[in-house]
Write a structure and sequence with these properties.
This protein has a single domain, classed as Serine Threonine Protein Phosphatase 5, Tetratricopeptide repeat (Alpha Horseshoe). It is about 70% helix and about 0% strand. The chain contains eight helices and no strands. Helix 1 runs antiparallel to helix 2, helix 4 packs antiparallel against helix 5 and helix 5 runs antiparallel to helix 6. The chain is elongated and about 65 Å long.
């Protein structure tokens, strides 16, 4: 049963047995390649394993096959943000919010990405004209906002991921 297989992958993942969880997910997906929940779990696992290119490909594939689901866009954005690609993260989060305007995590993550983009812009302004004292204060303030939060569900970028069981 698909729910049992997913539960086993999630259990292995929670126990830190990432390779075993990935093997189990791949085994299940070999015979059920369209299962959105397992694909989401695998993509999330790849992201946690710092296998960003594979995680991006997996989340992008999910967004193509299930364009109505906000969660894969949110998690795709988290991978992009972790890599410092805030423009792509912003676009993915804006899509997640369009799909589900009540998705608080995506709204929070979008705010984090906007703050990171602001920090980049203020830093560029200072590089171009170091005498801009007002910009220094703005940059300091935004950097305080983008300081990583110490919480289990928030990564270094402040982009929280959704739980794997969310998609349909």
């Amino acid at each position: 049963m698909a729910a049992d297989e997913l539960a086993e992958v999630l259990r292995l993942r929670q126990q830190g047995q990432d390779d075993a969880a990935l093997t189990k997910a791949d085994s299940f997906l070999a015979s059920h390649p369209k299962d959105a929940q397992m694909r989401f779990a695998k993509a999330s696992l790849l992201a946690d394993m710092k296998r960003a290119p594979e995680a991006i490909a997996a989340f992008e594939s999910l967004t193509q096959d299930h364009p109505d689901l906000a969660e894969p866009y949110n998690n795709l954005a988290a991978v992009y943000a972790s890599a410092g690609d805030y423009s792509k993260a912003r676009a993915a989060l804006e899509q997640a919010v369009r799909l589900n305007p009540g998705y608080a995590t995506a709204h929070e993550n979008l705010g984090d990405v906007y703050a990171a983009l602001a920090a980049q812009s203020y830093a560029s302004a200072l590089r171009l004209d170091p005498s801009r004292a007002g910009v220094q204060g703005k940059l300091a303030h935004v950097r305080q906002l983008t300081t990583p939060v110490r919480a289990a569900s928030v990564g270094a970028t402040g982009a929280a991921a959704s739980q794997p069981a969310t998609p349909r």
